[in-house]
Design brief:
Chains A, B: GO terms for molecular function: 6,7-dihydropteridine reductase activity. Two copies of one chain form a homodimer. By secondary structure, chain A is an alpha+beta fold. Helix content of chain A is 46%, strand content 14%.
């Protein structure tokens, strides 16, 4: 779909028809989303598609009750994590991308970035990860809409390692957001936006 | 442009032709970007378009030297801030949106959200703001590309109140990112992406 039309028609939708979305669609949506930029191209996001009905049900114990129904009805549920081991991730990229990256890039991922990450303070690292999550999530919800599905972004859950335990995800990953998606007759509606004069200044 | 094509063709570009972009274009780009979702629809972003040559020059004192040239050559420079006064912002939305929001929404922005924000811990609030910044920035760079311009996202600068002083921006706003944009013959190229098996798990 045309980007302008897509951007204007994407609204949060919290009710779905319960029909499962093919995993191949979810994979292609994630593939499109992960073309998002990230700081130093570290791609610190980690997507978990919750296929198991038992795990989806167990996940609800960590989610605010008001968000249960949309997760139950969704055609697919993605739990999005951040990789908190940026030093290791940087080296992983050097290793996995060895065939595609040039020497200078390899040096960065093998040495310069790991050194930089070791110097990050907690608050700074946490924000760095969160900005990257925001970037990829925007692209994710656009890609979902472009595929003909609706979605919502859920922050209302306990972002603790309990989520990792339920989903059997390594502890290096930090839970960030839950994105239910699926078919819906509800196409959502535009949310209120502040007037431009309120969000913009010229200097 | 078609979203898939747009998403695949958007790459970072760090060199521009130096020709100023009309402010009306930048405003329309910001308008498109701000259709991004945000947590509780708080829209905690604040865009500053740096029109003054003196202020653009002064800003360089806070930017890593490696990023100076792209800021100098850009057709426009946007400095993106977060509103750290979420309590006040919530009430601002209730006030400014009074004509469009229903009673339940007004109650939320006037009372429920301010109470919630008062209980936020520093780290949580900071991440909350950063995720919102990531969401709007992804939409911003897509909107820029869709308008026919190129852009880059700069994290490499001192994110301190010195930036507010230089740009004469209220202290309630926290500097987050600098986005230079402009015309360029360089259309960028795809950056390395981790294989999907590395960023995705099915559970």
């Amino acid at each position: 779909m045309d980007y302008v039309k897509l951007n204007k028609s994407r609204h949060k939708v919290k009710n779905f028809d319960g029909k499962k979305i093919p995993t191949v669609d979810v994979k292609q949506i994630i593939s499109a989303a992960s073309l998002a930029p990230s700081a130093h191209n570290i791609q610190s996001w980690h997507f978990v598609i919750v296929e198991s009905e038992e795990k989806r049900e167990a996940l609800l114990s960590e989610v605010d009750p008001g968000n249960h129904e949309q997760i139950k009805q969704a055609g697919a549920v993605i739990v999005l994590f951040s990789d908190t081991d940026l030093v290791e991730r940087s080296r992983d990229i050097a290793r996995l991308g060895a065939g595609e990256l040039d020497d200078e890039q390899l040096l960065r991922f093998n040495s310069r970035y790991p050194q930089m990450y070791e110097g990050f303070e907690e608050l700074h690292e946490s924000n760095y990860l969160s900005i990257n999550i925001g970037l990829v999530t925007m692209n994710l919800v656009l890609a979902i809409k472009n595929y003909g599905y609706e979605s919502n972004i859920i922050m209302g859950f306990n972002r603790t390692q309990k989520v990792n335990e339920i989903l059997e995800v390594e502890k290096r990953y930090r839970p960030e957001l839950i994105i239910p998606l699926g078919n819906s007759e509800d196409k959502g509606k535009p949310s209120y936006r502040l007037p431009q004069s309120q969000i913009m200044e010229i200097r």
